[in-house]
Amino acid sequence: MSRVVVTGRVPETALEKLRAEHDVDDWSGPESIGREELLRRVAGADAVVSLLTERIDAELLDAAGPQLKVVANVAVGYDNIDVPACTARGIVATNTPGVLTEATADIAFGLILSATRRLGEGERLIRSGQAWKWGMFFLLGSSLQGKTLGIVGMGGIGQATARRAKAFGMEIVYQSRSEIDPRVAAELGARRLELDELLATSDIVSLHCPYGPATHHLIGAGQFAAMKDSAYLINTARGPIVDEAALVAALRDGQIAGAGLDVFEKEPSVHPGLLELDNVVLVPHLGSATVETRTAMAMLAADNALAVLSGERPPAPIA
Ligand code: GLV
Known about the structure:
Elements (H helix, E strand, L loop, with lengths): L2 E4 L5 H8 L3 E4 L8 H8 L4 E4 L7 H7 L5 E4 L9 H6 L3 E3 L6 H16 L2 H9 L20 E5 L3 H12 L3 E5 L6 H7 L2 E2 L2 H7 L2 E4 L13 H6 L5 E4 L8 H9 L5 E4 L10 H4 L4 E3 L8 H19 L10
Helix pairs in contact: 1-13, 2-3, 5-7
This protein binds glyoxylic acid.
């Protein structure tokens, strides 16, 4: 029996699967586990099942000890894990790709509709108790049909968002480190562009790339200047891909028309400038937040941990 530390609350089915084979120490407090408590609990762990709110760095790996074999993140993004530090210690790091693709694309498309059709503004207006009535020019938004969606990062979630956009009659352009399957590109009628061309062409820019040094502040003042003043920015990837202060300025100065954000630069803090603006829709990192998706993510993380503990290749190794 190995010792498995789970750093936060996860669906019971995943815990049961782990408990059937191992000694599981799971944090079930209402708040996130604090750093000190986490460092204390990981001591002697053979596996750590981590949530994206916990930083898994060299200090933590050393606090765990040399028997640690696997860090199984319950997320597709793994910017909370120092992967080179894991590799240097022979620890396998895993994530949960695939199972959250559709849920995250749904939220991206929800933000596209909310921002372009001003749903947040309408909701706030009604709840404020202000008088309103139907009017020819009341809360007019922008249509999607015939518009161009620019996807930055054309992996699984980018492609799933593109499929939704195609069903809405949109044109698709994308920027991606690597060429995508030509059959998928043909089916979507998607054209690959450089980022600056994509920004200048798109009516909506949706971010789906991973976060890392190469994508830190990928979208900042220069990129907002390159976008159409009628364009919208959607971010369901990671907050620091966007320079939030520059986004506030672009939204305030009418450099772009609006934005929809599920992630924030200094999560869970939100730039105070964003809170004052009506042309941005703000939701609290809900990309994968469905019962079905979170269960599938936790089960995949459990499978990853169990595979490594039994000396097998995990279903979703990071590298
Ligand atoms: C959520 O943000 C994830 O990376 O899974």
